[in-house]
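Box 3.1 A note on notation
Throughout this textbook, protein chains are presented in two layers. The first layer is the amino acid sequence; the second is a token string describing backbone geometry. Keep the layers aligned when reading.
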Amino acid sequence: MPTNYYKLNLASLPDDLYNKETDVKEWLALTTTSKGSFPPDSLNRVLRMDSSVELERIIGISLWMVGNVLPFVLPLFILASILSSTGLVLLKAFLTYVAVLASLNKFIFAPMFMKRYKRKQLSNTDIKDNQYLHTERNNQKYNSLQFVWPESVNRPALNDKPVIFTAIPHGAVPLGITCYPVWSKLFNDKLCHWTCAPVVLKLPIVSSFMKHMGYIPAK
């Protein structure tokens, strides 16, 4: 007998439902169901998005990439600047690039989208609320994200059960897991803690963000 599958288009989720207080029933009311499979090409559609969202993700993802490699490449640039004038030029160009990205994010895009999504500064105690960060909402839109799951894990099947999610490891771009609130809301109400290499939680800036999202070291 064919299995029932459920699909939720997170990219088109209304912005006013993107918060911790929204009952998951309002998300589930937007799902579509299918027996066995969904029609061909129904899962690979790229949705149109606001140009400001696309620009924010271009800047935001670039800044995220830089933050992940900064502790490793900065010493190399500094060493190169000591050894040659070309190295010094490269160091200045790199620092300028980082400064421009950080400034655009801090003074333009972060305030814009925090206001649009009615967000506040990250909390030191409410991790579940932190997972509704504006960048994760924009990731849903930027990736035209859709979730598909079988009836066996549909609510209320996992309501009172501990769950371990597994994912394919990311490649060069560290965006293997994103859109964090989905994992802490869709299948049950338990806070989802993703794991990462312990060294990642020691990186400057990046580690603070990841801890606020609920990451813990893999063991």
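The chain is about 40% helix and 10% strand. The mean pLDDT is 94.
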